[in-house]
């Protein structure tokens, strides 16, 4: 996990820790099935928003996204359902930070599988990008960075802490139900002592953006056509760097944040009442049912030619 529990502005299959984090990643604080069934359309819009796809790239990208989600639905959702079922047992007992952190390798495995499945279609899109589209991506990064600063780097540090606390409470209450005053105070102290620093995460984001643009330019520059295996290897290496930072200082910081998150989340969980734990178990059970239903479905919502919600990309 690159950020603290409440700081997940980059929603790319985040590596998350513990029952509440996995459940929230699946649910996105909304109805799982509705969100998941709309995800292909959202992904198409997100990519188009960044890369300004042309009339050839758009349909190919939508088809590739639909295929990826069909794979994910049939192979990964059952895995998540199994994890959620096991979490329903764990959530009823006290736990430790170490126990929560043991979920991380399993979640990382799922994320690695998802990225590996995307390498070929992502590479095919990347090598088709033109210089003006790379400039469009760079401009979109600038806008994203402004949004990040507005949301997470408020100049008023008290306001920054207040917003962070508010986001975290909302996420925890999605799982446990309402937190009492003592739990909110415990959470406030935990966040104050956390090593998480939004400034550090922003610098890592900027480094990743530079590396992404560098890779895109290397695959599209000089009119050269790289052999598919070579281009795919570059894309795969870039994706790997998203999960494991090549910067040792940040990797060490990230490890410290993950362990701290596991520790304070375990302490807060151990303060929950039987009613709150039953609430959490019911939430997890519902998300498990959604995951199993999604995995059993034979089709996935996709933005096809007749149902596309993408705007025309012709200019």
| Shape by Cα distribution | globular
The low-confidence runs, each spanning 5 or more residues with pLDDT under 50, are: 1-30, 299-315
Radius of gyration, in angstroms, nearest whole number: 20 Å
* Structural category: mainly alpha
What count of domains describes the coordinates?
A: 1
Helix content: over 70%
The H-and-E topology, N to C, reads as: HHHHHHHHHHHHH
Oligomer: single chain
The main pleated sheet reads as: none
N-to-C terminal Cα separation, in Å? 39 Å
Q: What does the average pLDDT come to? A: 86
Could you name the key traits of this structure?
disordered C terminus; disordered N terminus; single chain; mainly alpha; 315 residues; 74% helix; globular
Short summary of the structure?
The protein has 315 residues and is an all-alpha fold. Helix content is 74%, strand content 0%. The protein has helices at 18-27, 32-51, 57-75, 77-90, 97-101, 103-126, 131-152, 157-176, 181-193, 198-220, 228-243, 248-270, 274-296.
Task: Give structural notes.
- There is one protein chain.
- By secondary structure, this protein is mostly helical.
- It has 13 helices and no strands.
- It has one domain.
- Helix content is 74%, strand content 0%.
- The protein is globular and about 60 Å long.
- The N terminus and C terminus are likely disordered.
SSE blueprint:
Blueprint: H1 18-27, H2 32-51, H3 57-75, H4 77-90, H5 97-101, H6 103-126, H7 131-152, H8 157-176, H9 181-193, H10 198-220, H11 228-243, H12 248-270, H13 274-296
Helix pairs in contact: 1-4, 1-13, 2-3, 3-6, 4-13, 6-11, 7-10, 8-9, 10-11
């Amino acid at each position: 996990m690159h950020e603290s529990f409440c700081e997940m502005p980059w929603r790319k299959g985040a590596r998350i820790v513990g029952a509440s984090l996995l459940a929230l990643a699946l649910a996105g604080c909304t109805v799982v099935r509705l969100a998941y069934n709309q995800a292909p359309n959202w992904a198409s819009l997100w990519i188009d928003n960044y890369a300004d796809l042309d009339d050839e790239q758009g349909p190919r990208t939508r088809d590739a996204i639909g295929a990826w989600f069909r794979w994910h639905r049939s192979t990964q959702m059952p895995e998540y359902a199994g994890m959620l079922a096991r979490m329903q047992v764990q959530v009823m007992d006290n736990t430790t930070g170490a126990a929560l952190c043991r979920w991380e390798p399993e979640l990382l495995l799922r994320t690695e599988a998802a990225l590996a499945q995307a390498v070929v279609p992502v590479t095919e899109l990347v090598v088709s990008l033109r210089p003006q589209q790379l400039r469009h991506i760079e401009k979109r990064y600038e806008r994203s960075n402004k949004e990040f600063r507005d949301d997470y780097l408020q100049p008023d540090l008290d306001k920054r802490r207040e917003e962070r606390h508010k986001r975290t409470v909302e996420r925890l209450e999605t799982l446990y139900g309402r937190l009492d005053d003592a739990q909110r105070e415990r959470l406030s102290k935990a966040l104050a002592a956390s090593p998480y620093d939004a400034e550090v995460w922003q610098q890592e984001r900027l480094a990743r953006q530079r590396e992404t643009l560098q890779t895109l330019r290397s695959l599209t520059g000089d009119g050269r056509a790289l052999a598919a295996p070579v281009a795919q290897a570059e894309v795969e290496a870039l994706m790997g760097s998203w999960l494991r930072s090549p910067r040792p200082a940040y990797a060490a910081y990230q490890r410290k944040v993950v362990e701290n998150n596991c520790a304070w989340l375990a302490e807060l969980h151990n303060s929950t009442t039987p009613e709150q734990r039953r609430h959490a178990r019911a939430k997890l059970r519902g998300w498990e049912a959604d995951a199993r239903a999604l995995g059993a479905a034979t089709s996935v919502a996709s933005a096809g030619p007749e149902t596309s919600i993408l705007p025309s990309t012709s200019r």
